[in-house]
Amino acid sequence: MSGTVATVCALCPAGRAGFADGLRAALSDAGMVLEVRETGCMSGCTRQSTLAFRAPGKMAYLFGEITLDDMPDILTFARLYLASADGDLTDARPLGALRAKAIARIPG
């Protein structure tokens, strides 16, 4: 295990619709190893359907308004995040529409 965790809000619309299972399957199909967890409210209610990525010693990210349509951009983010030593992505352009869904970057 890489130590990287993706956390999906289970109370948001995407979480209730099974987003975590879809994310697990997509990551597995892409050959990426990270844990996907579900949790109760992540207090992103103004931008429902939140998803967080974090890993020890790395910047953490919180995204909102996530849908299944975002999966290709989420996979791109996960690939870049896993490859980054500190989680700081200096160029967010490869993330497509996911760039506009970032709520927070939290120092590691």
Report the end-to-end length measured between terminal Cα atoms: 19 Å
The helix/strand class is alpha+beta
Number of strands: 5
- Choose one word for the global shape: globular
Number of helices: 3
CATH architecture: 3-Layer(aba) Sandwich
Count of folded domains:
1
- Write the H/E string, N to C: EHHEEEHE
What's the main sheet like?
5 strands, mixed
Helix content: 25-40%
Sheet with most strands: strand arrangement: 2-1-3-4-5
Strand content: 15-25%
Could you name the CATH topology?
Answer: Glutaredoxin
The CATH class is identified as Alpha Beta
Query: What Rg is obtained from the alpha carbons, in whole angstroms?
Result: 12 Å
Please characterize this protein's 3D structure.
The chain is α+β, with helices and mostly antiparallel strands. The chain has one domain: Glutaredoxin (3-Layer(aba) Sandwich). It has helices at 13-16, 19-29, 71-83, and strands at residues 5-9, 35-39, 51-54, 60-63, 102-106. The chain has a 5-stranded mixed β-sheet with strand order 2-1-3-4-5, with helices on one face. Strand 3 and strand 4 form a beta hairpin. The longest helix is centred in the C-terminal third of the chain and has 13 residues, at 71-83. The protein is globular, with a radius of gyration of 12 Å.
Topology:
Elements: E1 5-9, H1 13-16, H2 19-29, E2 35-39, E3 51-54, E4 60-63, H3 71-83, E5 102-106
